[in-house]
Amino acid sequence: MQELVDRLKAISDMTRLKIFKLILEQEFSVCELARLLSISQPAVSQHLRRLKAVGLAEEERRGQWIYYKGCQKELVSLTKQLASFFADPIDSIEGFSDIVTLLANRASLDAECTNQKEL
Amino acid sequence: MQELVDRLKAISDMTRLKIFKLILEQEFSVCELARLLSISQPAVSQHLRRLKAVGLAEEERRGQWIYYKGCQKELVSLTKQLASFFADPIDSIEGFSDIVTLLANRASLDAECTNQKEL
DNA sequence: TCGATACATAAGCATATAATTAAATTATAG
DNA sequence: CTATAATTTAATTATATGCTTATGTATCGA
User: Fold this and answer.
1) B26 with B48: CB under 8 angstroms?
2) Residue B98: which of B87, B109, B111, B88 has the closest Cα?
3) I need a surface site. Which of A65, A90, B90, B98 has the fewest CB within 10 A?
């Protein structure tokens, strides 16, 4: 579940989302991306690092340049992760164990919220 | 495109993602969510406000309590938005117009990055 | 009307994020 | 080997985020 959040965070930034879309279409060097997005090269580098960290981008050095491309496969994987998260029952999702326990008897949960609710 | 980013941001936080999943399954009062997540009531309130702001949550007051539920419909909409974003050609996505212009002749883009690349 | 409960809003604080400039790497060309 | 170019990493800064505590608002019951 943490991985899903990390990946969502990776694409929920306007600049990174644009970068990701661009490198999914074709390869780009860091310099080219900086020009396209009108931001500094280090900024692009750092965004690419984050995309790479969650598996959404790959780099390939060719001579002086490093070309980045988006991972279609991991995009599909992310999409599926997201779909599963919402489709699966809560008690089958890791990260909800504590919550599921509390949820098990909602009566006592309610009782903790008020002492009149169920009267 | 900004809307997509806003919606992605709304669910790319561990706590909000949990809240969203919970209220998609069934209604919960703010107090109940606070108990389930072991965070303060105002914290829950603020997360719910963000989810509501992007249409992913709805509230319904019943007496003293306000019950929140997730919007299945808007979840589907978000999923589609995301799928379209990656499926559509770049020049059909609003927000890429400046980039598309630059991309139009990549030769000059490359030239800006180096004076030797194409030699 | 008064007191208690549920929720929202405001204020404050610590941390995360996204950008920039500057310095360190890595690779090519001579 | 040295100079130059592309990239990364580091340092800095401004802003956003998420949480808490404190305060305000609304509903219910006595």
Assistant:
1) no
2) B109
3) B98
Taking the C-alpha atoms of residue B119 and residue B117, their distance in angstroms, rounded to an integer, is 6
CA-based nearest distance B46→chain A, Å: 18
Q: What is the pLDDT of residue A59?
A: 96
CB contact at 8 A, B5 and A12: yes
DSSP bridge pairs for A28 = A68
Q: How many CB atoms lie within 10 A of CB A90?
A: 17
Nearest to B24 by CA among B51, B6, B64: B51
Tokens of B61: 């007051």
The pTM assigned to this predicted structure is: 0.91
Q: What is the DSSP letter of A117?
A: T
Residues of chain B under the 50 pLDDT cut = 115-119
Contact A1, A95 (CB under 8 A): yes
- B-proximal residues of A, 36-65, CB under 8 Å: 36-38, 64-65
- How distant is the alpha carbon of residue B51 from its chain centre? 9
Query: In degrees rounded to 5, what are phi and psi of residue A58?
Result: -130, 150
Q: Which of residues 57-96 of B touch strand D (CB under 7 A)?
A: 61, 63-64
Task: Report all structural domains of chain A as residue ranges with CATH numbers, in order of start.
Answer: 2-73 (1.10.10.10), 89-119 (no CATH)
Token pair 């008690």 is found at: A91
